[in-house]
Known about the structure:
Layout: E1 4-6, E2 9-13, E3 16-20, E4 31-35, E5 43-49, E6 54-60, E7 62-69, E8 82-88, E9 94-97, E10 101-107, E11 113-118, E12 129-130
Antiparallel strand pairs: 1-9, 2-3, 4-11, 5-10, 5-12, 6-9, 6-11, 7-8, 7-10
Amino acid sequence: MEPSLISGAKFSDERGKLKFNNNFDASDIKRMYIIENNHNHIIRAWQGHKVEQRWFCVIQGEFLIQLIKIDDWEKPSSGLESIFFKLSSENMDVLHVPAGFVTGIKQIDKEAKLLAMADYHLNEVNDEYRFPLETFDVYKNF
């Protein structure tokens, strides 16, 4: 399975604004958390999962999310290709990250907030992999 962007939309009238995502099926979600960095220059990378999936939705500001499909979880290749997504709170777009990927996350705006959703409860599976930023050559593209 490949990552996908589930497009949201917005509506406004004299009463105010409404942001929504009627295409997002949240039935697999078991937990949620919000990511807020202290500074814009922080890059949260590389963390991923063999089994778990993640969904990301920006609730304030903008984020840049870089994804890498892992070839070997014990010793991944440094030259793996990446996919970039720029997410904004302008619409309620949801980025689906299937199992098998690591993420690099960088906020663009000072007060940005990213909602992360997972399909397993905390400690339900032992499936967290972390690699130093320099593990993959593409980190220079952030």
